[in-house]
Design goal:
By secondary structure, the protein is mainly beta. The chain has a single domain, classed as Beta Complex (Metal Binding Protein, Guanine Nucleotide Exchange Factor, Chain A). Helix content is 8%, strand content 41%. The protein starts with a strand and ends in a 12-residue tail after the last helix.
Length: 128
């Protein structure tokens, strides 16, 4: 299913191909907990930026692998390149304008990221 999404002001718009029933991760790490991010990690081939490339600002911390992207106008973080899946894209389910038919939210212990990151690696791999 194709989902359309955007930041709050609409300057950044994207499309993501994902199942009708979305399984999202709710992480308790410092950045995710403070921003209320709901993770949908997909292969990069299933994500398409439709508009707003020039309106994206990025932020990295710690290892610098994750590229957190934000709208320069409204400050919303609609997607980013995650450290656990640098070959994929992590979409904020809360920024989907097309709502999923069904949504299951799983708790992810990001406070203990090093011990749990391997549980996410498969999410950016396209099925055979």
């Amino acid at each position: 299913m194709k989902y359309l999404g955007s930041c709050h002001c609409g300057a950044i718009q994207f499309e993501v191909d994902a199942p009708e029933h979305i399984y999202a991760e709710e992480c308790n790490c410092s950045i995710c907990a403070k921003s209320g991010y709901l993770h949908l990690i997909v292969p990069l081939s299933r994500f398409k930026l439709l508009q707003g490339r020039d309106n994206i600002s990025s932020y990295s911390f710690n290892t610098g692998v994750a590229k957190h992207t934000f709208c320069k106008t409204c400050g919303v973080k609609p997607f980013y390149t995650p450290r656990s899946n640098p070959d994929g894209m992590d979409v904020n389910v809360r920024c989907l304008d097309t709502k999923p038919g069904e949504l299951t939210i799983n708790a992810f212990d990001g406070v203990n990221w090093e011990e749990n990151a391997q549980k996410l690696v498969h999410l950016s791999k396209a099925p055979d």
